[in-house]
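Escalation from tier 1.

The customer reports that the assembly of two entities below gives different structure tokens on two consecutive runs. Tier 1 could not reproduce it. I'm attaching the input and our single run for tier 2 to review.
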Amino acid sequence: MVQQTVVDETRRPPAIVAVEGVVKRFGRFTALNDINLSVRAGEKIVLCGPSGSGKSTLIRCINHIETHDSGRIVVDGVELTDRMGDINTVRREVGMVFQSFNLFPHLSIVENCMLAPMKVRGLSRAQAHERARGFLRKVRIHDQADKYPGQLSGGQQQRVAIARALCMQPKIMLFDEPTSALDPEMVKEVLDIMVELARDGMTMVCVTHEMGFAREVADRVVFMDHGAIVEEADPETFFRAPRTERARDFLGQIIH
Amino acid sequence: MFAVLFEPTADGQRYIDWLLSGLGWTLALAFFGWWIAFAVGIVVGIGRTVQNRAFAALARLYVEVFRNIPVLVQMFLWYFVLPEILPTTLGNAIKQIPPPWGSFFPALICLGLYTAARIAEQVRAGIEALPKGQTEAASALGLSPYLTYRHIIVPQALRLIVPSLTSEVMGIYKNTSVALTIGLMELTAQARQISEATFQTFTAFGAATLIYLALALIAYQGMALIDRAVRIPGTARTDDDIAPNLAEDIQQAGALPAGMEIAK
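Tier 1 run:
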């Protein structure tokens, strides 16, 4: 029972991510049950839902960190399968930001941002350095470039993680609960960066419970429960008048 | 008490020169053996953690074989058995290697490969101790498995295991004493020779023991310095992490190196 906003299909940009009938099981537990979702270039999608609803699993499947059991996932024109030769050609176009930052602790901030552009994109050291400085400035952390991740606060680390992903100049950015591990006073600095990124036209899929963020930037809110997409609507509709009981319960729990 | 060491020997040297010559062989064996062990150990340790089943199985086999056969037996296998199972000409060529090299090379290979198996297990433990998010973040950036190991996994794992590698550094030079059984005149062998020439058993082995002890402390301090030098800024690791390790090493090692137990 997924309702979609009716728009003239021909005027929309093509889907950069297409998820069709995807099923993912962990042993007997079905984490994703027949998921269909398409993301068009430039679109911002917020995935929300109670914990264990499969939203993180879904975005981890989109860059093949988890492998799906059946169905199809097509990213930027390439179908993700177990047998594909080089998954990394897809991954380099898909940036990912994790809940726990996952910066490389043994590399300085600027080296964190330079490694993949140099080794994967083949940039020279000078080019990678220049690009890293640029994106670190964008996330307003360029004055810390030579420090190590352990010397930064959580909010700063997450901003570096965003800059690190951007240095690959991806076509799409995935955010897996980017603010859930942060102290409350640091949430805003990360969300501000994400809002700016959205304004720049980046295609984004965000798993987040930050409803203010969802209202501000999302084109669509996708609500998941028990491994299925339960409701999909523009944020205004979703927050004002959720159609399903489960979405109403969920919103009741997170909005005090 | 050590005065006898400065007395002249039959060959015109002093007994202490015998000890120093033995120390030289001990250090050479431990030093070069260590680099063999370190290089092979890292490769095998990585092999234990890779997805490729054939490679992982081979690495496992290596560790089980080399870790579970006593060093002394391995020493005999390299020295006595290897030349016999090789083609006759090659076997004879090996037997023709003049002393002390004829003993040194088998001992070097033996200690290097044995210690490599132990280091491999440390490397594996270090790799497995890293958060899964590190590999995921590297994959998400498009780094291949090779690049992920090369730039993300191995540099962190090696830093993590520096304290436990201290035991292996101490272990390899203590195990050099086993080389006396195949005729290498290293420190313990020289101590025994002095003891036989002078009947000053206590002095001879006492001096050797002090040298081994001094080496242990130097190795320990050296590893502590390395640990401090490679520490990642912003990560706190207290000295408590290392201190219990020393106690453990001393306990593990027993008072004397393995070869000295044999010499007794």
